[in-house]
Amino acid sequence: xxxxxxxxxxxxxxxxxxxxxxxxxxxxxxxxxxxxxxxxxxxxxxxxxxxxxxxxxxxxxxxxxxxxxxxxxxxxxxxxxxxxxxxxxxxxxxxxxxxxxxxxxxxxxxxxxxxxxxxxxxxxxxxxxxxxxxxxxxxxxxxxxxxxxxxxxxxxxxxxxxxxxxxxxxxxxxxxxxxxxxxxxxxxxxxxxxxxxxxxxxxxxxxxxxxxxxxxxxxxxxxxxxxxxxxxxxxxxxxxxxxxxxxxxxxxxxxxxxxxxxxxxxxxxxxxxxxxxxxxxxxxxxxxxxxxxxxxxxxxxxxxxxxxxxxxxxxxxxxxxxxxxxxxxxxxxxxxxxxxxxxxxxxxxxxxxxxxxxxxxxxxxxxxxxxxxxxxxxxxxxxxxxxxxxxxxxxxxxxxxxxxxxxxxxxxxxxxxxxxxxxxxxxxxxxxxxxxxxxxxxxxxxxxxxxxxxxxxxxxxxxxxxxxxxxxxxxxxxxxxxxxxxxxxxxxxxxxxxxxxxxxxxxxxxxxxxxxxxxxxxxxxxxxxxxxxxxxxxxxxxxxxxxxxxxxxxxxxxxxxxxxxxxxxxxxxxxxxxxxxxxxxxxxxxxxxxxxxxxxxxxxxxxxxxxx
Length: 612
Hints:
One of its GO terms (molecular function) is protein-phosphocysteine-trehalose phosphotransferase system transporter activity. This protein is α+β, with helices and mostly antiparallel strands and 612 residues long. The chain has 19 helices and 20 strands.
């Protein structure tokens, strides 16, 4: 790859250097903050051979490159007036607008607590199924205990949100948790629900219920972050330990009870009433419009604005109409991608379309949306139309979600367990097939097959064996909990769940990339295979901790040469998965990439992949 040419092309197509506010890179993507995203020529960017796809998250313009992204990034810096100072996230650029800042806060607060909510929601779904089929009675002790497990995260939601919000706002998360615990204290809850006139040092307190609420605690912790920082600034160092948390609690909790809490509770209730009123009085039109446009909403990042409303609807009313619209949007993307699989004559793109359709059904739509449907345009429109068709059915039948789950794909259908469960399942099927049929009938301009441009038989890539760089259990890429790998966006390969903390060279070749975070290494074999070994999922966030690299870029290596060692226990303790994708990033060079083993254990240097 000519990195200089690629970098110049990318800079030109994002609107020129003058349109770049900042640029950084992660494992696979260039992440641009542009002054005007509309100036970027998305179509031409996607047509560049080096570009695997485009994604816009919030205001960030992301260009998916793959394992060559560090070199492309270096070339961009070298071939422009951008400096490393400007290449830091939001350094030297304009401030976010208010709307973007709000979305960023909502995303940052709710995303960390989703696993707890998803787990609790799944348990509530299991309880509902067990009671429905008579496997358990609602009066049994087992039901009581399981209900406590399922309801706990929702009842004490303000405490979870307090901790997450404090981390986002930069205040003490444990003081924030204490604020949440105070407004949920049983004695205070009983007092607020007694119907008596309540006051604090002469100031009246409006009765409100704070269990399972969202907006009051977010406002309270936002205020607490300023109060805590101000008290910390004026308190002598020797007294900070005692005075800062004490005064913060004494100020924020009463302020919350007197003003912020009631206002937040009222705002949340009216917001839910307004949203639910639209669905209950104009359900057909509202659901058609929302389901048909939700993929567009997700692309802009505006879906984060709906998260507090969804939580509030479920916890206060027991049902929500927004989650079903998100389900339909995902099913539409899956159906449209499946139609591409049925109609495309490009074998490689056909395979990609089927894979991304399946991942979209599982709730991961990025590969289908950006890698297939938007790339071909008409299938993306078909996905929107298919979702709208499903929305019409949901609107007529009044489908709602009754449990908050962490997945808006088939694994998360327990969210629909309730009076409209059957209609919800029918709507999912309708949406998938409607999008498939519409996309198939509308057609699309197929991706040209590379068969005509393939090298002559005598020039084809010779068969090559890729040896295992790790000792462990071989797994399919589809089992990797990352859409970039499981969707084969970067290329084909396999994954290994390691049992020893050493990765060795799988080929004779040259080290082409050693990531600064030490968690990934790129190698080009002597026969031309470009391989990336990515140790763990999201381990880039460790910033090199627990990893030791034993090679450098340009080193010649042989099979079995030690590349990197890593502390497995420390990485697991930090909360990261160790499953390691081994990807052939120049997959298009080969007619076949087949794993030697699929579900068995493998030793170091044992044959892993056959390239031909």
